[in-house]
Amino acid sequence: MRQTNRLTQHFYGPEVPDTAVQLREAATQTGVTSNKPLPTYKDFLLDHISDAVIFTDMDLRIIYINKRAEQVYGIKAKNATGNLFRDIIQYDYMDDSREQALQILQQTGKWQGKVVYTRKDKQVFQLLATVTFARDEKKQPVGLIATLKDITAEELINESARKTKLEQQKEINRIMLKTQENERNELGRELHDNINQILAAVKLQLEYGLENYDEEKSTIERCKNNIEQVIKEIRNLSHRLVLPRFAETTLMAEIQKTIDNIVQQQPVYLDLHGLNEQLLPDNIKETIYRIIQEQLTNIIRHARARKANIKLHNTARAVFLSIEDDGIGFNTALSRKGVGITNILNRVETYNGKAHIFSSPGKGCRLEVTIPLKNA
């Protein structure tokens, strides 16, 4: 009766199906094993290198660990030798699963990957592990050699660099959004103060003409109506471009005003129960305002919705926004790169928030946003 491969047990556990990978058969045709101790001079060399080194036999019983391995794993060689590797040391695999690591080792004779080891004193080590077959003078496999390089400091530096890069990107997003808002505010003021004033003057002139030229009355009347429409459109556009001054108004009032200005046909139901504006800094109010404005514009332009629902509330720790419509929906995998959605995601990510979009063709759309208030 064939003996179950202990190395396979280490990776898969004690119960191994007949179809499990047979590492011993993959490594050797003879089944030769050896527990011979290493020569003293090799012990000396191995004890003076910076990597942890572990030798096992083909049954994965530890036959040698060097001093660096003792330091990393917090164990003594005399307590480790003779024991199964998996009874002494257990890793969390970062790159491959245990099964994948075994398969690669079986197929190529070598596996390399990152593992995490937590010592009994709770100190965590991130290690770059390299596992190969140890062979005797006849090139027959007699066990496994594992060398483990401590990359904890390197990984911490890399993680710090990743976080720094992420924070830099967020800061760039903040600057870009602030620049956009400044440009919008300037454009809105120009529209209101300059073009609107010119049109208002023309309107007055036409009104004067209406009083004096009966024969041109119909033409002048049309001009007057057109100009009034232009003034109305510019007023609405200015309102959409310029951010409200929340020191002078409330988020609740501005949301309602946005609904009234943007939405003409479809009813929008606004639920602000649980909203405490006193807990919201102005930059978060501005972000929520712009997200609602952007999503309502998306609904009007694309959704063909009959109605929409907006729910907004907050706690001392976070603000929660949900905007839902019953429109035609869309494939989120294909539409996430749209300008409107991208703007929303950028605004949310700038404040370490989360945005989720749920939609499918014919099923409407639901946008859910959570923004933490700490350090906002």
UniProtKB/TrEMBL annotation:
It is found in: Cytoplasm. It catalyses: ATP + protein L-histidine = ADP + protein N-phospho-L-histidine. It is an enzyme of class 2 (transferase). Residues 45-108 form the PAS domain. Signal peptide: none annotated. Residues 177-240 form a coiled coil. CDD domains: HATPase_UhpB-NarQ-NarX-like, PAS. GO terms for molecular function: 4 iron, 4 sulfur cluster binding; ATP binding; metal ion binding; phosphorelay sensor kinase activity; protein dimerization activity. Its EC number is 2.7.13.3. Residues 111-163 form the PAC domain. Its cofactor is [4Fe-4S] cluster. GO terms for cellular component: cytoplasm; membrane. It holds the Pfam family HisKA_3. InterPro entries: HATPase_C_sf (IPR036890), HATPase_dom (IPR003594), His_kinase_dom (IPR005467), PAS (IPR000014), PAS-assoc_C (IPR000700), PAS-like_dom_sf (IPR035965), Sensor_HK_TwoCompSys (IPR050482), Sig_transdc_His_kin-like_C (IPR004358). It comes from the Bacteria. The keyword GTP-binding does not apply. The keyword Protein transport does not apply. Residues 186-375 form the Histidine kinase domain. SUPFAM superfamilies: ATPase domain of HSP90 chaperone/DNA topoisomerase II/histidine kinase (SSF55874), PYP-like sensor domain (PAS domain) (SSF55785). Keywords: 4Fe-4S, ATP-binding, Coiled coil, Cytoplasm, Iron, Iron-sulfur, Kinase, Metal-binding, Nucleotide-binding, Phosphoprotein, Transferase, Two-component regulatory system. NCBIfam families: sensory_box. Member of the two-component regulatory system NreB/NreC involved in the control of dissimilatory nitrate/nitrite reduction in response to oxygen. NreB functions as a direct oxygen sensor histidine kinase which is autophosphorylated, in the absence of oxygen, probably at the conserved histidine residue, and transfers its phosphate group probably to a conserved aspartate residue of NreC. NreB/NreC activates the expression of the nitrate (narGHJI) and nitrite (nir) reductase operons, as well as the putative nitrate transporter gene narT. This is Oxygen sensor histidine kinase NreB. It comes from Niastella populi.
